[in-house]
TrEMBL record:
Function recorded in the entry: Large subunit of the arginine-specific carbamoyl phosphate synthase (CPSase). CPSase catalyzes the formation of carbamoyl phosphate from the ammonia moiety of glutamine, hydrogencarbonate, and phosphate donated by ATP, constituting the first step of 2 biosynthetic pathways, one leading to arginine and/or urea and the other to pyrimidine nucleotides.
GO molecular function term, any single one: ATP binding
Residues annotated as domain ATP-grasp: 154-346, 697-888
Protein name as catalogued: Carbamoyl phosphate synthase arginine-specific large chain
GO CC terms of this entry: mitochondrion
Organism for this UniProt entry: Zygotorulaspora mrakii
Lineage of source species: Eukaryota, Fungi, Dikarya, Ascomycota, Saccharomycotina
Subcellular location, principal: mitochondrion
Domain MGS-like: 957-1112
Length: 1112
């Protein structure tokens, strides 16, 4: 295979010199960029960041960019970046259609996660890249295949004497068992071509291995069985190489957790803290040797297992693409890896590129850090029923935080608070009881708290904690410094007795004001956070602002990438900008994700266009909002009241935008306002009136807007009386919730007693609100922007699912297809009344249910909502831009426009992206608690076409093709399952059920043959064989309610559809919609797939072609 790069000889061409003469790849004017699709566990916001950087680099080089990415919520899918955008499935099939239409000169495969990389390898095997003469920029396909195929990889590393764990590639369960006998238990199993350790795990014996291998082989054609090195240190290096063999290591990172936990689920520190100089250089040299031998052009990461008490090491894996770690490394060092990798792909060499942060030095250098970075994952496992909480070699976290400090203690405590604002910092929890040793020995999402409990409250020694956790004693020693400070603070009897030096030392170890207040509080006298703040400021103890300049301040560098610390003697910046603060959304979690990052970035963009200086506060390394070139100043900091107020006062800010970062900024808005912060938009007192359920419901009554019957209760007795009066089911919800946390539908008195004990734990300060839950009602989302109580724009999206499925898990259709003109007018009227009653200026969102002809408001959020990017991109009007102009007021405010009165000749459908595959045991059943981790959307000429494309855009979705089997199960008292089988009859499928009752029910809806098949509920291996025997390629399971236990037949059917990577439809309305889409589109799909020529289907059109102009 000849290289697309003309020369691999070094030249004297260097940035900023007369010799500058880059030799770029010839004949490349247009580049197809492969995106990563919907956010899922293991493949999240980091690809929005790296993909956006790649497009920035291509634009700078004056290349036309064509992007395929169905993730409508991201910054990458905006015309301010890509020239052409296709919201289509990221699959070899759809990429081929776009290539046929667009004829790009080149393709970028390494910026779309594992999805993009797998597509590239498949397109190469299919001969598509050769047929259309498309150049692969950056790392060649051969290298990508070598790093993904475990045998080839092992062979390549053996050639250069680099040690890897002894492993065997296996394609059957029997091979796996033989391999394990050879290497000896315990073993680790990994899947080839899989993302985030999907399908990998540890086995201590043959039975465990048999089950794990069976599951892994359903997700991947090849698995690797290797000797486990559990308990060794895990270290990672990010390496960059150009076409002429210049090589640098940009960042090295060390996991706090020993080997055995996926790096995405590990607490990580950069730079590494416990390596000796010898170890550091040994691994650095090995990383450079590996990347050169493999022939990577661009960026890659090398993961090592390092013997804790010697110099032995093994290479665990190499990712020859941008990854989660590379996003983290970029933010940790300030070195933009994705941007640099894209430039290298075009043929630039490292000496030819400037360091984009300093703009004065070249990119051919290794950053040095004068600070420590801590990364902690965010898990949301409590949202799932029956989920396994252990963390191991397969990733389960939904997001991550990054904190910067001048010492370990400062960085670690900051990061712990960022993960969850209810944490004080390093702390314990009494949830473990007498099982503390167990909680320390086996890693779960709560282990950091177990370490805190052991050291802080149970008097465990460092040796004992190390013995149980295998966490390096150096880290535990540092944690003990925090413990000692706690003890010193607890010895202080009152606020007056808190001395200046002790307070300063506590701040230097990362203690927050609130943490100090609670530590010195005594039963008789509690001390408040604001009192500590006042005392601290009176002592002139305020944080200093430091720059990240990639050079450890060794050269003068004027960067805008900042953090605060108490471990300094002066600030690096002048405070004369008076910039507008924009509060970002913090860590990605279920319910608050990349859509709020789109909102924050667009807010900053609009403010800059309006001539305002901007200051972003956010601590999420996966985001575009924390990219150094999006704002005038970027603070990588906590979104707590204390830190935001510190920055507001230091910067002497003109104002603060609180309505675009989701629920986190909302929760501190009132406190900021009461302490003199100029919050833009709706008054926080009015926001509080919408967040407090009692005030909210009372105001709706006063303006004659309908809502379900409700009451506020403080005791279980009151709750029972209300529920008997309105009849069950009822909805139980506390105030100030995000994404339905602790909200639940209750069907009986017995359930009510159980649930109320849970909800009162959630918010002891706020009583609980109960409302009548209306079954079978349609749900509608209204997104709007108002100015002084007058609506400027609004969008009405209808849910496919009935009320009762959380709006974040719902399928949304826009423009609405089934609502009458009267209903739309009534919704507009409600939006006006609500805007007026709450005096709204800025963004807001309402959820409304349609019960017969009656419209009832069930929720109102006075902030940007999850669906803002969706409605903005579908209607071609940027709602955030209008919201920012409304907040600025005066002549900036645009005239009102009724977007819903327009006629649209297209429809868009937004579909949730779930990550159940990652969450072993979790029941894939939808309810009022949100479960999806992301979203995708597609356009079409009608609702069926747009849904058909959108559902195929979800990760690993395969359209079932006849004569495969479809398995049915669930509720036989309603028509839904019958409707589904009616639509898919006579298409050539075989129909199966697991019991006679379902068969009898379905026979009244179809003339086709239905077979009852064996359904072993307790034996996963036998069940897999059953699925294979009958070639089951889709499952429709429409159960009436959640499973009582894990032996419930419907639960087993749903869960195994997920585990065997088979499309599952578990909700009536979407099941019917998919069945109708299948009926309408199947013949065309089969014809296209069987054709020898490339036939481009109807739905393959760009965003611009659908909307009719180029929205930004």
């Amino acid at each position: 295979m000849t290289s697309i790069y003309k020369s691999s000889e070094p030249t004297i061409s260097t940035f900023n010199t007369p010799y500058y003469k880059p030799q770029l790849v010839e004949g490349v004017e247009s580049v197809l960029v492969i995106g990563s699709g919907g956010l899922s566990i293991g493949q999240a916001g980091e690809f929005d960041y790296s993909g956006s950087q790649a497009i920035k680099a291509l634009k700078e080089a004056k290349k036309k960019t064509i992007l395929i990415n169905p993730n409508i919520a991201t910054n990458q899918t905006s015309h301010s970046l890509a020239d052409k955008i296709y919201y289509l499935p990221v699959t070899p099939e759809y990429i081929t259609y776009i290539i046929e239409r667009e004829r790009p000169d080149a393709i970028l495969l390494t910026f779309g996660g594992q999805t993009g990389l797998n597509c590239g390898v498949a397109l190469d095997k299919m001969g598509v890249l050769k047929k259309y003469n498309i150049k692969v920029l950056g790392t060649p396909i051969k290298t990508l295949e070598m790093t993904e195929d475990r045998d080839l990889f092992a062979q390549a590393l053996t050639e250069i004497n680099i040690p890897i764990a002894t492993s065997f590639a296996c394609e059957t369960i029997d091979d796996a068992l033989k391999a394990a006998d050879e290497v000896g238990y315990p073993v680790i199993v990994r899947s080839a071509y899989a993302l985030g350790g999907l399908g990998s795990g540890f086995s201590n014996n043959g039975d465990e291995l048999r089950e794990l291998a069976a599951q892994s082989l359903s997700l991947s054609p090849q698995i690797l069985v290797e000797k486990s090195l559990k308990g060794w240190k895990e270290v990672e290096y990010e390496v960059v190489r150009d076409r002429v063999d210049n090589c640098i290591t940009v960042c090295n990172m060390e996991n706090l957790d020993p080997l055995g936990i996926h790096t995405g689920d590990s607490i990580v520190f950069a730079p590494s803290q416990t390596l000796s100089d010898e170890e550091y250089h040994m691994l650095r040299s090995a990383a450079i040797k590996i990347i050169r031998h493999l022939g990577v052009i661009g960026e890659c990461n090398v993961q090592y297992a390092l013997q804790p008490d010697g110099l032995d090491y093994r290479v665990i894996e190499v990712n020859a693409r941008l990854s989660r770690s590379s996003a983290l490394a970029s933010k940790a060092t300030g070195y933009p890896l994705a941007y640099t990798a894209a430039k290298i792909g075009l043929g630039y060499t490292l000496p030819e590129l400037p360091n984009p942060i300093t703009k004065t030095t070249v990119a051919n250098f290794e950053p040095s850090l004068d600070y420590i970075v801590a990364k902690i994952p965010k898990w949301d496992l409590s949202k799932f029923q029956y989920v396994n909480r252990d963390i191991g070699s397969a990733m389960k976290s939904v997001g991550e935080v990054m904190a910067i400090g001048r010492n370990f203690e400062e960085a670690y405590q900051k990061a712990l608070r960022q993960v969850d604002p209810s944490f004080l910092g390093f702390q314990g929890s009494n949830e473990f009881g007498d099982k503390l040793d167990e909680a320390l020995a086996s890693a779960t999402d709560r282990r950091a708290l177990a370490v805190g409990q052991a050291l802080l409250h149970e008097n465990y020694t460092i040796e004992r904690v190390h013995e149980l956790t295998k966490i390096d004693s150096w880290f535990l020693q540092k944690c003990m410094n925090i413990v000692r400070m706690y003890k010193q603070l607890e010895a202080v009897n009152s606020l007056d007795a808190l001395e200046k030096d002790l307070l300063r030392n506590a701040k230097k170890l990362g203690f927050s004001d609130k943490q100090i207040a609670i530590s010195i509080s005594k039963d008789s006298k509690t001390v408040g956070e604001l009192e500590v703040r006042k005392l601290r400021k009176s002592f002139d103890i305020i944080p200093f602002v430091k720059r990240i300049d990639t050079l450890a301040a060794e050269f003068p560098a004027n960067t805008n990438y900042l953090y605060t610390t108490y471990n300094a003697i002066k600030s690096d910046v002048e405070f004369d900008d008076n910039g507008m603060l924009v509060l970002g959304s913090g860590v990605y979690r279920i319910g608050s994700s990349v859509e709020f990052d789109w909102c924050a970035v667009n807010t900053a963009k609009t403010l800059r266009e309006q001539g305002k200086k901007t200051v972003m506060i956010n601590y999420n390394p996966e985001t575009v909002s924390t990219d150094f070139d999006e704002v005038d100043r970027l603070y990588f900091e906590e979104l707590s009241f204390e830190r935001v107020m510190d920055i507001y006062e230091l910067e002497n800010s003109e104002g603060c935008v609180i309505s675009v970062g989701g629920q986190l900024p909302q929760n501190i808005a009132l406190k900021l306002y009461e302490n003199g912060c100029n919050t833009l938009g709706t008054n926080p007192n009015d926001i509080d009136n919408a967040e407090n359920r009692h005030k909210f419901s009372s105001i709706l009554d006063s303006i004659n807007v309908g809502q379900p019957d409700w009451t506020e209760v403080t005791s279980i007795e009151e709750a029972k009386l209300f529920s008997r009066r309105v009849t069950y089911p009822v909805l139980v919800r506390p105030s100030y919730v995000l994404s339905g946390a602790a909200m639940s539908v209750v069907n009986s008195e017995h359930e009510l007693e159980d649930k109320l004990t849970l909800a009162s734990d959630v918010s002891p300060d706020h009583p609980v609100v109960l409302s009548k839950f209306i079954e079978g009602a349609e749900e509608i989302d209204v997104d709007a922007v108002a100015y002084n109580g007058q609506v400027l724009v609004h969008a009405i999206s209808e849910h496919v699912e009935n009320a009762g499925v959380h709006s974040g898990d719902a399928t949304l259709i826009l423009p609405p297809q089934t609502l009458s003109e009267e209903t739309k007018a009534a919704l507009k009227d409600i939006a006006h009344r609500v805007a007026h009653a709450w005096k709204i200026t800025g963004p807001f969102n309402m959820q409304v249910i349609k019960d017969g002809d009656k419209l009832k408001v069930i929720e109102c959020n006075i902030r940007a909502s999850r669906s803002f990017p969706f409605v903005s991109k579908v209607l071609g009007v940027n709602f955030i831009e209008i919201a920012v102009k409304a907040c600025l007021g005066g002549d900036k405010v645009p005239e009102p426009v009724d977007l819903m009165a327009k006629k649209y000749n297209y429809v868009a459908t937004k579909v949730p992206q779930f990550s159940f595959t990652r969450l072993a045991g979790a029941d894939p059943y939808l309810g009022v608690e949100m479960a999806s981790t992301g979203e995708v959307a597609s356009f079409g000429t009608n609702a069926l076409e747009s849904y058909w494309t959108a559902i195929q855009s979800t990760l690993n979705f395969h359209v079932p093709l006849p004569p495969s089997g479809i398995l049915f199960g669930g509720d036989v008292k309603k028509d839904f399952l019958g409707e589904v089988i009616k639509s898919v009859s006579n298409l050539g499928f075989n129909f199966y059920v697991a019991n006679e009752e379902v068969k009898k029910y379905l026979q009244s809806y179809t003339d086709e043959n239905i077979s009852v098949i064996e359904f072993p509920k307790n034996d996963k291996r036998k069940l897999r064989e059953v699925f294979q025997k009958y070639d089951i390629k889709a499952v429709f399971n429409l159960a009436a309610k959640r499973a009582e236990n894990t032996l419930d037949e419907d639960y087993v059917m749903r869960r195994n559809a997920i585990d065997f990577a088979i499309p599952l439809f578990n909700e009536p309305q979407t099941a019917i919609l998919f069945a109708k889409s299948l009926k309408a589109k199947l013949a065309e799909k089969i014809k296209i797939l069987e054709s020898n020529d490339v036939i481009v289907p109807e739905e393959v059109r760009s965003w611009e072609e659908y909307v009719g102009f180029r929205p930004v």
